[in-house]
Write a structure and sequence with these properties.
9-stranded antiparallel beta sheet, about 20% helix, disordered N terminus, 1 helix
Length: about 200
């Protein structure tokens, strides 16, 4: 295994491609974290305006949204196997996002959020002489936090095949802790890439 967790028997991987994966994992964690935090803040704001609403009188509000045929991510990135620039698009065939927020009492502001999606993924290079890739993906993000701390974990798997017959397999697991003093504790991003 090399320093990024890629087995030596896999095809050579460009360092800039692995850098893109690591940065992409961190960006995705920040994006999903920002979405959960924004959703939590939005729900709390609505509740403040709406008055003392709660789920079954428990001081908690939950929101769930089911997704079908929705673009959940589209971003400029690099092919981690070749370094070629292009656009990655993920379309959820099936997905669900859920958040629960405590609205009153000592734990007010505490939340739990999760997001799961599976569907099709494609990578279209900027240079048409490079292969395009298409296949399947599955992602999961789970977070919980209160007014002082937050924990977020992300995992994603991509199985793509190129128009030239090559393969791109990626599994990524990321985790971060955020406290009132900033990021601390355990934070990591562990991509596992197979090119061939």
């Amino acid at each position: 295994m090399d320093q990024w967790g890629v087995s030596a028997h896999h095809s050579p991987v460009k360092e800039d491609g692995m850098k893109a994966i690591r940065e992409g994992g961190r960006t995705r964690m920040r994006r999903f974290g920002a979405l959960s935090t924004a959703a939590a803040a939005g729900v709390l704001g609505i509740l403040a305006l709406a008055g003392p609403a709660s789920a079954s009188g428990a001081g908690a509000v939950s929101f769930t949204e089911h997704l079908s045929n929705v673009v959940v991510d589209q971003e400029a990135t690099a092919n981690p196997c070749t370094g070629a620039s292009g656009t990655l698009t993920e379309i959820a065939d099936n997905g669900v996002a859920h958040i629960t927020i405590l609205t009153s009492g000592q734990g007010a502001g505490t939340f739990w959020a999760t997001f799961t999606a599976t569907g099709t993924a494609s990578f279209v290079p900027d240079d048409p002489s490079q292969p395009s890739y298409s296949g399947r993906f599955t992602v999961w993000d789970g977070e919980n936090g209160n007014l002082k701390n937050e924990v977020a974990t992300f995992t994603g798997t991509f199985h793509l095949t190129g128009t030239d017959g090559s393969i791109l397999r990626l599994h990524d697991t990321s985790h971060m802790n955020v406290s009132a003093s900033g990021i601390g504790g355990i934070s990591f991003d562990k991509p596992m890439l197979t090119c061939g």
